[in-house]
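Batch manifest, entry 17 of 40.
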Amino acid sequence: AFTTRYKVTNRRLVINRGFISRNSDETDIFRFSDVGVTQGVFQRITGRGNVELSGSDQSTPTLELHNIGDPDRVKDLIRDAAHEERDRRRIRYREEM
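Output type: structure tokens
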């Protein structure tokens, strides 16, 4: 895909890929239970990074948002939105020990 665009709302993560032909994917934000950031040296210098998401969605248990500006802020926004949406839906996740 020549272009990838990410849109985060308080309920969904939408990923649009493609330039001529397009592919769109949506995942409910409450499904993400773990959010992290990875940054290479060049990404740290430029203030960019990859946001890694994992959760309970059967079709895509892990996602990586590539080359995101201010990745720590985006990570926090997604994590907070996921918590709020789980609270709104009265969903509780149990961690396995």
